[in-house]
Amino acid sequence: MPAEAVLSVRDLEVNYPVRGRRSRREARYVRAVAGVDLDIRPGETMGLVGESGCGKTTLGSSVMRARPEATGSILYRDSQDRVLDALRLSRSDEKVYRREVRMVFQDPHSSLNPRMTLRDIIAEPLRMLTDLGPQEIEKRVRDVTERVGLHPEHLRRYPHAFSGGQRQRVSIARALVPGPRLVVADEAVSALDTSVRSQILNLLRDLQDEMGLTYLFISHDLSVVEHVCDRVAVMYLGRIVEVAPTEELFRSPRHPYTEALISAVPVPDPRLRGSRERIRLTGEVPDPSKPPTGCPFNPRCRHATQVCVFEVPAPRAGPLGRTVACHHADDLELTGVTGQVNPPTPSQRQE
Q1: DSSP letter (8 states) at residue 214
Q2: pTM for the complete prediction?
Q3: DSSP secondary structure letters along 140-195
């Protein structure tokens, strides 16, 4: 595990069995996550993007130990500087992990128990994961309630009395009340209105500064990712195809799939609309139970050659902490968010 990482995912795979229609004995497997490696540094916001069905949520839930099918290793450096493998925890270490690694879910409506008051919802992790007494639990609940922008008098009410944005604040409070170090935010703002979305994003950023949090921010909205993330990992068909600092990734993508995703990001300035070409990928995302040979993106890639059809590209490390899994990353001239073609410079070429 790298010394600078708080979480290191190594060779993570998640395979789901799918029964055949003709016979229950016939089984094939869906590779939802296919050999992923990913490092997350303390205090950063790591974005995870890709099309629906690419495996983003499966990766996030694997980090939360919610996928018993997961194999490989998920190494976490806890507050005592011990390295724990989330897939192989003892009972005592499991409690530590669940206290220090928390999740904010996508849907604030279904993720809260409608039969519990806000006080009980927020206090539940403390009762399950700590040995605190009632007075200390009440103190922590009130403190985190105020931190997320809710009033203490709200604690006696039920979730149905609140708006979507307020419910998401409750979800954030529930995630933060045990004092975590790493938070997995799975599409945490996608179900909210635009104005409320910006408020929640600002709240997450403020809480990160106040509490020293690290985020794994899962989203399909690249315009949000561009503004809140320090680094971005791009996922396609269960694999990480590119990792780079956010500014570099949007300015100068090195993988054709990243270029296609960036081309769909809306341009806020009306004067610049139409200044860049929208890259529309042909075909559909391949069936993960029957992935293509070679590079998984090759059936939809306009730059694919014979080597792409027969050989899976290995991620190669480059400058600025970038990694790219593409056979032709050194040679392609791809377009970034500005609409300008960016040929790879010597400093961008893979080492």
Answers
A1: E
A2: 0.91
A3: HHHHHHHHTT--GGGGGS-GGGS-HHHHHHHHHHHHHTT--SEEEEESTTTTS-HH
Cα dihedral sign, 325-326-327-333: negative
For 70-118, the three-class secondary structure string (H helix, E strand, C coil) is CEEEEEEECCCCCEEECCCCCHHHHHHHHHHEEEECCCCCCCCCCCCCH
Side chain identity at residue 187, one-letter code = E
pLDDT tens for 200-233 read 999 999 999 999 999 999 998 898 999 999 999 9
Closest CA to 141 of 195, 185, 178: 178
* Domain layout of the chain by residue ranges: 7-229, 255-342
* Number of C-beta neighbours around residue 283 at 10 A: 7
pLDDT in tens, 36-53: 999 999 999 999 999 888
279 — pLDDT class (breaks 50, 70, 90): confident
Q: Which among 230, 229, 257, 227 is positioned nearest to 242, based on CA atoms? A: 257
What's the pLDDT at 351?
46
Checking if the pLDDT of 347 tops 50, the result is no
Tokens of 343: 């040929």
pLDDT at 58 over 90: yes
Residue type (1 letter), 99: R
> In the block, which residue shows the tokens 């996922």?
235
Average pLDDT over the chain reads 89
Residues 248, 336: Cα–Cα separation, whole Å: 9
Q: What's 7-229's CATH class?
A: alpha beta
Which one, of 324, 275, 323, 327, lies nearest residue 298 by Cα?
327
